[in-house]
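Structure first, sequence second, as always.
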């Protein structure tokens, strides 16, 4: 179980993602979480830095898809503003939405990475499907109250993984 919760890499933020390394692994697509991965939870602003990041991904020929457990309305705002396909109400860690994202991008599981801020949704779901998983530190400490409870369990798992030397920074 602990293996399924272990991200392939653990980064400070999406901006640390090494695109060349991903390419070397044959990864050509990025499935990204929305809240607290790209933007603070329930913030509605696309900051220039984020916009620039997506432009760079496109320039580097990466396919991108947002997969979020949040509502259709909220996810659509960003999907429209960033001009990126998105799947809302994804029910991560279930694999269905990740599979749909792969279909949209026309990629196989070993050709895509999942980027997210939560072990029990983004990383677990991605690992279950054999995707390359990237955990990032949450953008903001403001969160849905349910998530705050999950964070305690998450910190415990992260400590275990760190103790075993499994976390690649
Ligand atoms: Mg998130």
């Amino acid at each position: 179980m602990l293996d399924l919760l272990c991200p392939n890499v653990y980064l400070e933020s999406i901006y640390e993602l090494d695109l060349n390394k991903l390419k070397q692994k044959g990864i050509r697509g990025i499935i990204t979480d929305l809240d607290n991965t790209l933007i603070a939870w329930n913030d509605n602003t696309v900051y220039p830095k984020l916009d620039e990041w997506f432009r760079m991904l496109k320039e580097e020929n990466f396919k991108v898809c947002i997969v979020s457990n949040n509502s259709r309305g909220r996810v659509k705002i960003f999907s429209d503003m960033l001009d990126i396909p998105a799947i809302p109400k994804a029910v991560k860690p279930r694999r269905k939405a990740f599979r749909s994202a792969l279909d949209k991008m026309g990629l196989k599981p070993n050709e895509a990475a999942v980027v997210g801020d939560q072990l029990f949704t983004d990383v677990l779901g991605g690992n279950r499907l054999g995707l390359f998983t990237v955990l990032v530190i949450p953008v903001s400490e403001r969160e849905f109250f349910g998530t705050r409870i999950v964070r305690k369990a998450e910190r415990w798992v992260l400590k275990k993984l760190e103790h075993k030397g499994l976390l690649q920074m």
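Margin note: The domain at 3-163 is CATH 3.40.50.1000 (Rossmann fold).
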